[in-house]
Amino acid sequence: MAKSSLQNINDLLESQVQKYPDKLFLIGESYKTAITYSEFNFEVNRAANILLSVGVSKGKCVSLYLTNRVEYLTCYFACFRIGAWAGPVNALLKPQEIAFIITNSEAVTVVTQSDLLENLRLALVNVPAIREVIVIEDSGQWSVISGQSNAAQARIESGMIKKGDDAASLQLSADDEAVIIYTSGTTGRPKGVLLTHGNLLANAEQIARWLRLTEEDRALMIMPLFHVNALMTTCMAALWAGGSVVLAPRFSASRHWNTISDYGVTYFGSVATMLSMLNHTYPEGVPEGLDTSRLRFALCGSAPVPVEVMKTFESLFNCPVIEGYGLSESTCRSTFNPIDERRRVGSVGLPIGNEMKIFDEKDRELGPNEVGEIVLRGPNIMKGYYKNEAATREAFRSGWFHTGDLGYRDEDGFFYVVDRKSDMIIRGGENIYPREIDEVLYRHPKVKDAATVGVKDELYGEEVKSFVVLREGESATEQELLDFCRERLADFKCPKTIEFLNDIPKGPTGKLLKRELAK
C-alpha cells in the first residue's frame, strides 16, 4: 500500500507488516523482549480483542495508566485499530489529578499495571463511570478486576483472544480521533488535546522525512510514553520509515551508553536535563570499550536546550544534538534543525511541514528578529480541546493556532524560542525572558542547573529571581554569581537574588518546573 493512500494508523502498521514481516520492530530493553513486525501486529490484535471483549468501541476513551513497557505500545495500537481513543495518563500524577483526567476524558476502561493499582484505586473512588480496570501483570497476563469482571475475564482467557485473531476491521478516516492527551496545566486545569489519525500520520511522515530515517534506523525510546514526544519521534516516525524501536523503561544515565552500544542505536529522544546529566556522569566521554559508531544524532525538545549544555554534550560524545520545537497541540514536532551543515546551535530550526509565523498582540505578522507569539497551521495541528470550545476558539483565532510561546525568526527563516508567554517577566515595563538569564548562569563552571522566575515586587511589579543547583563538590556565593551575570547582562535583566537548592523540581520528562519555583 502506498503511504500516500494511508487513512489511519492501522493502515500504516499493516502496510509495514506486509513489507517487513520478519524484521525486528520492538526490542524491550528491560525484559530482553524482541518481536518482529508481524509478532507486534499479533499482539496488537490480541489487545484489540481484549478491549472489544469488555465493551470498548469506536469513539470510546481508554485510559492508559502505565509506565514504559511493550504492552503500552500494543495498547496504543489496539485503540487505533478499533477506533477507540488512546488516553495516556502520566504515571507520576497524584490520585486527584488522575481522577480529573479520567473523568474529563469520559474514559470507560483503564489499562494499568500492578504497581500502579493502589494509586489508581484511590483515584477511582469518585469516578463511577469506569466500567473495567484491566491489569497487566509483569508476566504479561491480562486480568479484569472490576466491572463485568467474570464475563470479561472468561472472554480474555478464551482461545479466540489468546490466539490474537484479527480484530474487527473498521473504516477509519484521517479525521477520526486517535489520542486524547492532557496538557501539563501550566495555565490552569489540564486541557484534553484531541489528535486525529491524520494528525499522527502527518507528523510521523514530517519527522521521518526531515530526519532522513530509513529501515536501517534504530530509535531508543527513553522518554515516557504518556507524552507525545516518545510516541511520535521514537515510535511513529521509526514505524513510518520501517525502522526499529528499543524501548527502555526509563532514562538511566549510568546505563545510557551501554544501551546505545548493546542495541546498535542510531538516535534517541531526550530533553535538556538528560543531556546535562550525561555531561556530568561522563566527563571523559563515552566509556572505553563501547561502540557508538551507529549513533547519528540525539533529538532534544520539550524545553529549550541551554547552549552550553549542547556544546559540552557534542564535544564529549561526538554526537550532534538536533533541537526541535513542538507541543502536544501540534502532535509533537513543528520544527527541527537540519541534520546537515545548516544546523544552528541555539535555534529550534525550520518548520518541517507545517506553517509557522510570529504574530504581535493584534495577530499581525512580525518581521525578522521581532519577538512575538509563535503561531502554527498545518495537517499536524490538533482537532481541538475536548469539551472546551471556548479554549479552542481562543487558541485558533485568526485561523492560526496560538502556542502561547514567544519567539522570533531570523533573516534566513530559522526560528528561536525565547520563553513561554506566561513565563515572561515584566520588570518596570521591560520585558525580560528568563531563558536568556538561565543561559548565562549555565555558562558558569560551577553551575549544574539554573531556573529563573519573576517574583512580585512593589516598586517594579516583578523582580528577577534565579534558583541554582551547583555541581557536586563545588561551592559558590550569591555575590559571585550575581557579578557573573552583571558582566554579561544588562542591569535590568540581572537577578536581584539567587537562591541555592539541592535540586530543582522536574516534570516526568525532566523539564524544570518553573511554576513550582514561582509558587
Radius of gyration equals 23 Å
Uncertain stretches of 5 or more adjacent residues: 158-164
| Strand line-up of the largest beta sheet | 2-1-11-10-12-13-14-15-16
- What would the principal axes of the Cα set say about the shape? globular
Helix content: 25-40%
Beta content comes to 15-25%
Kindly report how far apart the N and C termini lie. 53 Å
**Secondary-structure-derived class:** alpha/beta
Major sheet description: 9 strands, mixed
Average pLDDT over all residues? 89
DSSP summary: helix tally: 16
Q: Give the number of DSSP strands.
A: 26
Give structural attributes.
519 residues, alpha/beta, nine-stranded mixed sheet, five-stranded mixed sheet, 26 strands
Lay out the secondary structure.
Layout: H1 9-19, E1 24-28, E2 33-36, H2 37-53, E3 61-65, H3 70-82, E4 85-88, H4 95-104, E5 107-113, H5 117-123, E6 132-136, E7 142-144, H6 149-156, H7 159-163, E8 177-182, E9 192-196, H8 197-210, E10 218-221, H9 228-241, E11 244-247, H10 256-263, E12 267-270, H11 272-281, E13 297-300, H12 307-317, E14 321-325, E15 335-336, E16 350-351, E17 355-359, E18 372-377, E19 384-385, H13 389-395, E20 401-409, E21 415-420, E22 425-427, E23 430-432, H14 434-442, E24 447-457, E25 461-470, H15 478-486, E26 497-500, H16 514-518
Parallel strand pairs: 1-11, 3-4, 3-5, 5-6, 10-11, 10-12, 12-13, 13-14, 25-26
Antiparallel strand pairs: 1-2, 6-7, 8-9, 9-19, 14-15, 15-16, 17-18, 18-20, 20-21, 22-23, 24-25
Helix pairs in contact: 2-3, 4-5, 8-9, 11-12
